[in-house]
Specification:
The complex is a heterodimer of chains A (187) and B (782). Chain A is mostly helical and 187 residues long. Chain A folds into two domains: 6-97, Fumarate Reductase Iron-sulfur Protein, Chain B, domain 2; 102-185, no CATH class. Chain A has helices at residues 7-13, 16-21, 27-31, 33-37, 43-51, 72-76, 83-97, 102-118, 124-130, 133-137, 140-149, 164-177, 179-186. In chain A, α8 (102-118) crosses α12 (164-177) and α8 crosses α13. In chain A, 25% of the residues are buried. With 782 residues, chain B is of the alpha/beta class. Chain B folds into six domains: 1-131, Nitrogenase molybdenum iron protein domain (Rossmann fold), CATH 3.40.50.1980; 134-234 and 312-326 and 492-566, FAD/NAD(P)-binding domain, CATH 3.50.50; 236-310, Alpha-Beta Plaits (2-Layer Sandwich), CATH 3.30.70; 330-490, 3-Layer(bba) Sandwich (FAD/NAD(P)-binding domain), CATH 3.50.50; 570-623, Alpha-Beta Plaits, CATH 3.30.70; 626-782, Rossmann fold (3-Layer(aba) Sandwich), CATH 3.40.50. Helix content of chain B is 30%, strand content 23%. Chain B is built from 21 helices and 38 strands. In chain B, α1 links the parallel β1 (4-9) and β2. The radius of gyration of chain B is 31 Å and the shape is globular. The model of chain B is unreliable at 772-782 (pLDDT under 50). The chains are: A mainly alpha (187), B alpha/beta (782). Chains A and B meet through α3 of A and β25 of B. Bound molecules: flavin-adenine dinucleotide and iron/sulfur cluster (SF4) (3 copies). Residues 22-28, 43-44, 47, 76-79, 81, 83 of chain A line the site of one iron/sulfur cluster.
Chain lengths: 187, 782
Amino acid sequence: MANSDSSNNFDYLYKKENKVRCLQCGRCAAGCPAAHVFSEYNPREVMRRVQDGEEHELHKDPIIWLCGQCYTCNSRCPRNNNPASIILQARERAYKQGHAPAEIYQQSAALLESLFLNGVTVSPVLLKEKLGVLSELVDVERLTKLRAELGLPEHNSREVPIPAKAIKQIRTIITSTSGQGERANDA
Amino acid sequence: MSRFGVFLCRCDGNISNTVNIDRLEKHFSQTCVVETDQHLCSLQGQQKIKNSIRKHDLQGVVVAACSPNNHGKTFRKCLSDTGLNPYLLELANVREQCSWVTKDQKSATRKARDLVNASIQRLQHAEPLSEFLVGVTNAALVIGGGIAGITAALSLAENGIKTYLVERQPSIGGNTVRIGKVFSPHKMVEECAMCSLSPLMNDVYEHPNITLLTNAEVTSVIGTAGRFSVDIKIKPRSVNERCTSCGECATVCPIEVADWWNANTRNRKAIYKPFPQAVPDRYVIDIENCVKCGKCSKACKSKAIELEAEPSLQKVKVGAIVLATGHEEFDPSLRPELGYARLDNVITQLELARIIGVNGPTNGELLRPSDGAKPSKIIMIQCVGSRDEKPNGLHYCSSVCCMVALKHANYISDYSPGTQISVLYTDIRTPGIYENYYRHVQDKGVRFIRGRASEVKQKAGKLYVSVEDTLRSKCVELDADLVVLSTGMLPSKGTVELAQKLGIELSEELFVKEKHPKLEGASTSIKGIYVCGTAQGPKDITYSVLQADAASLEALSLIGQGSLSIEPLSAFVKDSCNGCGICVRHCRNNAIKIVDRAATIDPMLCTGGGACIHACPTGALDLHNSTEAQLEASIRGMLAGKVNGEIRNIAFLDSKIGYAAADNIGASKLQYPSSVRIISVPSVLRLAPRHIDLAFKLGADGVFIGQGFEAESCGENFESVESKLNNLSASVAQLGIDPARLKIYRVYIPHFVGLHKRLMQFDKGIRQNDEPSDELALRSET
Ligand SMILES: Cc1cc2nc3c(=O)[nH]c(=O)nc-3n(C[C@H](O)[C@H](O)[C@H](O)COP(=O)(O)OP(=O)(O)OC[C@H]3O[C@@H](n4cnc5c(N)ncnc54)[C@H](O)[C@@H]3O)c2cc1C
Ligand code: SF4
Ligand code: SF4
Ligand code: SF4
């Protein structure tokens, strides 16, 4: 993890030739659900900034949190560019350097905690109570009703108990790979 | 000091920036006459070689420069001009296979030194050879009867050459027939394609020097420039000359099939005439779909129908071949997000051309497919399948589709005024004079939006296109009644099949590769075979016709020579032959015969692959210009001077495809370790277990064998080459050589990247093998 902030990290994930090869055709933006909802967000413009050598500034811009990580941009790009991965990379850096919005830290801590305690990240309870804006987007009641209508079993797969041994292993992984884990451990 | 001359080319830095030429000059001056030059291929450079040959009375020449495929002939001529036999020349490829593939100056210089050394060693065994003359057949074959093939056939015929024109379809005309209206450089009005094409088609039919074979395909081509023998298979037309084109038969025929000539926008019968001006002007039965019900026979008053007609085979001899097998359209259903084949009102430009064509499905009226209503809003989407690196995408610009969209937008603005047209483009490409057309169409009020459409949806019967107007950074959904996709152009299946059958080089995009992109734009990698039209690359009619004239001029000048000199690169028989006849069945070209209890080889039939050489139990056969002594010298030379701890891997590549692929690696500046040393062999069938064994005995760490994918050697087909290679590796294994040290690989020129990958993997594998690292030892224990 030590070198995850070095500039090499970017070059490794996004081959230089791809960055400079963007056609600025806008096929990514035209298919991007986030760009349709948020006028300030546009994956083509993200690519333009990367082309212009500003990729290392991207993490300070709050627009990176608008992307839905659906990867439509990548599946449409005629040059096989990947704005979604660039966004992801910028988010990782923003998170580590403290540029992410406060709710991101809260939400991620909640997710990690849930993973540590129950062996799963997202659960209906978590969605409803702790994930802020997400809970508005995901209507748990409606989903439960839909399941019933479709004749699916009532229980949510995420409520299937995770074997104790697996939870133990998950905890080991978390504690040995992240300082955050220890925090969760304390909790 | 030998009387060999070594000429080192700097190639204006291409070589000398990496290879230390001064050092090589010093090194070889001890044993040979050495000269260096910036450009040995220039007239001055050539003069330098000639002067030196004369001055020092040289007995042989080594030129260390670019690939022999570039200037081999030029340098040979330098020798013959001075009276020295041109086969006393060796070329060391220190550019494509050294300076361009090696970054490190030290390694490059060492490798170049070794390559030159190997050439000197091989030169000691060179034999003077003389070329021989053969007559050229005064006839030509043109394959493909689109506008390019038609033009080429007419030019040849006009110049007195007997010309065969072979067309797969039942009529000539090709894609130009389907596009209806055509744009041209200086006019702002669309002309009718048929108005220019129809008279040419009739000229073809009536020309005394042209034999037109429609419904026909070339099945095999053997021989070389000046003397090709061609087999042509002709499908039965099943309708004879008595046909008056009355059409009674088609009205009774019960079978309907999609009509290619109308881009499948309407159906035709199993008995049909492709289009009103078809040449030959006759009906034809499509035997794949005919059920032989006999209804047409009864309806035909002229008794023209022959339901039981059989296919026939025609054999022709020609001096030159022109390929004009054209293109086809990108299949837009490969981009399902654009709705083609899912949404009725999403069509291609070609389909639009048929809809607005007078003999199309709507008799020229602009009506949309779903309900026959007149569209009032049309959106055209550019670059569909072109400039696209997704799977099956065409990486190149198809170069005509911008003009096609402008043409159709212009035509519709004139004939259906009030129609709103928007063109969604990535870049508008209207090079040269065509810019006038763009301006003209802008004046007509057509909207141009810079953005590549991402998807097409249908809601409540209306189409919606998502696009970003990139110049305003605005994502919009535009509604339309009709969406037209400007699909790209790719080489036709016929082009690719035929090229592979003939063994001619294709570009990475699978178009026929021209011999030189600037200087020999209508020649192919095989002498005597020329190319024109969209078979060679995307282009419009203007350039297809120009290239057709260039191709026919090339063919004419070859045929006009009357005779050609042939390289004497055949197998030959030594005195030790006892007439046992074993070799005879090893030659699939039937070039070997036993006459007076000894084998004789017909140099005209022998293709010089060398498969027979090791078949002879007494070692009485050998191959000119790749003799046992020469091959051995190459192996020795490539391994000479190997120091302790150094790795050297020998790569035997066939001189045609494998070697050219290796050159392409160099031309693309892909790097590989200098341990890889390439030896060119006429075909890998030339190699016997003893050669591999020798390489290992002399210290090779690994041996790589690369054989061209389609290059047939000694008349052997793909499978038999394969099985011979398997035998070779089995015999090598019997010699006790670790099979991991021998790799056999098939090479396909467009995929030189694949060869590069294999060479890298191979070299890496050998290195790991050679360093018995702890890790490796551990792994083998467990
Ligand atoms: C939608 C569209 C619109 C266009 N509009 C214009 C325009 O307005 N103006 C313009 O200048 N250009 C236009 N073009 C480009 C134009 O179509 C081409 O430049 C032209 O057709 C090329 O002619 P060709 O003879 O090389 O190939 P083709 O027309 O493709 O002819 C090739 C012929 O070879 C035959 N063939 C293929 N394989 C074999 C085989 N193995 N054996 C025997 N025969 C074989 C085919 O049946 C065909 O008849 C347009 C292209 C498209 C796609
Ligand atoms: S990233 Fe791809 S889709 Fe987006 S503008 Fe660049 S080339 Fe077009
Ligand atoms: S991954 Fe993000 S940028 Fe890409 S299309 Fe989806 S939301 Fe838009
Ligand atoms: S000609 Fe125009 S539409 Fe066609 S590939 Fe090129 S840029 Fe795209």
